[in-house]
Amino acid sequence: MKVLIALALLAAALPSVVGHAALLAPIPFNTNPSTTFQCGGAGAGPVNYMPTGGTLNWKIIAGDGAGAIRLLVDPAGTAGNFPTNGNSAATGSVVAVSLSPDPITNPPTTVGTTYAFTFSWPAGLTCTGASGAYPTGVCTAQVAAQSNWVACFAFAMTPAPGQNASQAQTQEPPGRCVTPGANGIAPLTTCTMINGQSIWVDDGTAASDIDATVLDSLKKNLNNSNVFANQPQTIGNLDSPCYVMYLRYLCGSSFLKCIPQTVGSSNYIKPPVGTGRQPCLSNCKEMVCWCGLTLKHIGLYTCVFPNNNEVSDASGKCNVLWNNKTCDLVPAASTGGACPDGCGAPHRALLSPIAILVAALIAVITTFVVANK
Questions:
Q1: Shortest CA distance to 151 belongs to which of 262, 280, 29?
Q2: pLDDT by residue (tens digit) across 300-314?
Q3: pTM for the complete prediction?
Q4: Of the candidates 206, 202, 204, 149, which has an alpha carbon nearest to the alpha carbon of residue 24?
Q5: How far apart are CA 229 and CA 293, in angstroms?
């Protein structure tokens, strides 16, 4: 009985889950979940053409990402008038939009599930923001969860001047190619491997804003044993393959590398859709393995992309290994982690101290029960 009590106390002492939830549709500013920034870490994104309303797809990725959500709209089309989390009251010109089914009385609760909510824009809503082809007519909407996860998307209810409805479906955000650390652009302090490269930045966003979202993810996830089984981890520890590969993956997936307009050209442009817009698949797999992504957060980094990229991303070339070593996979799912080939367990070195202690206590209990039969 004393052993059982000790095990119960240990379970109660485990760190609380830092969960995640994400907006999948309409197309958001940033797909990387955040609780720190009003719009998930970016200040601009594609303009979704939504004349009367639409459907909102909200995925519960893990833990405390579950909970009621609400949809707020800023007619001015900015990304700075929203509350920073779902528990703050909307102020100023921001208006609430009803979702169906009602996510307050029927909140999204099941991890791994994507919930669909329909909505209609309120009568009299007039959008006055500007973006790209739209000199006016753009609103910004925020999805805010009581669990503090937020995301934003931009939308227009009428086509831009000179467009018809079919041309207005989803307008990519305007922007420019910049080089951090050159031409008056401050160097990045987190994704330092991006400095000196030409990367794409949407209008309304700075390279430093994207860099800040990477640091935010590092702070929330790197040393959280509910996210990564390989602990302890410390930001800046270059001797840790988990940190090195996680940083490379976050930078490669957060920044978009510009390409020369023509071969040998010094004029850089945003790569066309379907070419060079995905992070390195192999780098993602190495990160998941070295860090030991736990089953609690299995949906956070799936390493599944529409177009598998094995050439390079903004972080550098693909197939990058830590100290020229690939992560050693084992077939047993002893730690409850996940690895690139789907075997369900990370590297042998990724057994967390907590997992080892729990396994030891379970072994003690089993021995005790058998001995006292």
A1: 29
A2: 888 888 777 788 889
A3: 0.74
A4: 149
A5: 6
